[in-house]
Amino acid sequence: MLNGRNKNLIKQLRNISSSNGVDYFGIADLSQAHNAILEQGGSYIASFPFSISIGISLLDSIVDLLPQRDERAVKVSYRHHVYDIVNLRLDLAASIISGYLQQSGFKALPIPASKRVDDERICASFSHKMGAHLAGLGWIGKSCLIITPDYGPRVRWATILTDAPLEPTGKMQQEQCGDCRECIDICPTRAFTGNPFKVDEPREARYDAKKCEKYFDSMEQKNEIAVCGLCLFVCPYGRKKKI
User: Which one of 122, 136, 142, 241 is CB 3.0 to 4.6 Å from 209, fit for a cystine?
Assistant: First the structure.
């Protein structure tokens, strides 16, 4: 049972997030995924008992142009707004939230929105998708992206790890992709196996990240702006508001 101080802390964190343009806010108890977190990020990352997930929804006007991504203007717009600008907004919000937590007497570690720490496994020190999933903000789809009920996968995420005694905002949502294969079929590298998410299975059971890596490398070797995002574009949960 949370006391009044901690309830007020959560309220303040929500307010800070909202005032910094954050669309999604969720808190997760990380004890249920301790082993996976330890394996990916090491003992320090795994020492934090809670995570705060923040998400910003992407502009449909940019995502909807992805089928024309061979056009340089589309690539420039997508790379700039969806990656550079949204990642910066998330990182700034995560830094502000972390600073507030520290001033309140707690430890806080912001995990960058899009920074890899392991080139071999192609991963960050903590999985934003896992944090958002544990916080009840969506489910992990066949594309290995978090699928939110209202914006589908058209959301980018950042995470703050903390020892503040926070109350989780929800439970993991059940996968609701059903028989849909749109993300699988549209993938130019055939990186997805189509297997549904299972907590006890590694990412490789669903997704071959190295195929995507090679695809992006091949574009960069041609001095092209590396952009794909077709699995994000095609998901019916992201497109349903326009169908």
Answer: 122
Our count of domains for the chain comes to 1
Rounded (10°) CA dihedral 88, 94, 98, 100? 90
pLDDT for 183-241, tens place per residue?
A: 999 999 999 998 888 777 788 888 999 999 999 999 999 999 999 999 999 999 998 75
Distance CA 35, CA 76 (A): 39
Domain around 73: 4-242
> Do residues 113 and 120 make contact, with C-beta atoms less than 8 angstroms apart?
no
Q: Both tokens of residue 19?
A: 């005032």
Calculate the CA dihedral of residues 85, 91, 96, 97 and round it to 10 degrees: 120
Is 10 within 8 Å of 26 (Cβ atoms)?
Answer: no
CB of 91 within 8 A of CB of 102?
no
Residue with tokens 């795994």, as numbered in its chain = 46
CA–CA–CA angle 95, 96, 102 (5° rounding): 90
Q: Which long-range contacts (CB under 8 A, 24 or more apart) does 234-237 make?
A: 234/182, 234/183, 234/186, 235/141, 235/143, 235/145, 235/147, 235/152, 235/153, 235/154, 235/182, 235/183, 236/152, 236/180, 236/182, 237/147, 237/148, 237/149, 237/150, 237/151, 237/152, 237/153
What is the greatest pairwise CA distance in the chain? 58
